[in-house]
Design goal:
about 190 residues, Nucleotide Exchange Factor Grpe, Chain A, domain 2, 3 helices
């Protein structure tokens, strides 16, 4: 081989190496691009799943809020309406205890009419899930009762509700108004020093 042939062969060899290197680089780039595309796809899928989960959680939250708004929409109205029952009870007690009214022969008819109104109001409350809290002779529970005083009483266990000052009410599973109560406490025995 002549020098020119050798040089030509070297050039061809270098060109072939360059082409091989370019092909190899192109293959590597294509592999990198495909990996990044797969990674991008995976990342996008994860974001999509998170977004869908977040949307589902928000839908559930809105559904729950809508249900609570439907169930407890009249909560404030119901709380304010309790004063009607309180005032009706006070009126009945007032009529029965007033010495001037005891001489009126139709007093019992008036009281009966007021009690019919009270029964109707209690019936409407029950239809709407509002019921009085039964508290007499029950253990004091701060979730349902508000202690107004302690009553010395050795016949009941300490912490037992012995007096109801104002009725408490529940609306379905929510406290509408706590019962105002008197709670039993043990009478302190005085030690006489000699």
């Amino acid at each position: 081989m002549t020098n020119s042939e050798k040089k030509e062969e070297e050039i061809l060899s270098k060109e072939k190496n360059l082409v091989d290197k370019k092909d190899k680089k192109n293959e590597e780039d294509a592999a990198l691009e495909s990996e990044t595309s797969e990674e991008k796809l995976k990342t996008t899928q994860e974001k999509l799943l998170r977004t869908l989960a977040e949307m589902e959680n928000q839908r559930r939250r809105f559904e729950k809020e809508k249900q609570e708004a439907f169930e407890f929409g009249g909560f404030n109205f119901a709380g304010e309406s309790l004063t009607l029952i309180d005032n009706i009870d006070r009126a009945i007690v007032s009529f029965k205890n007033d010495e001037n009214l005891k001489n009126i022969k139709d007093l019992n008819k008036i009281i009966d009419g007021i009690e019919v109104i009270k029964k109707d109001l209690v019936s409407i409350f029950k239809k709407n899930g509002i019921e009085a809290i039964d508290c007499i002779n029950k253990k004091f529970d701060p979730n349902f009762h508000q202690a107004m005083m302690e009553v010395e009483n050795n016949t009941k266990e300490a912490g037992t509700v012995v007096q109801e000052i104002q009725k408490g009410y529940m609306m379905k599973n929510r406290l509408l108004r706590p019962s105002l109560v008197g709670v039993a406490k043990k009478r302190e025995e005085k030690v006489v020093k000699k």
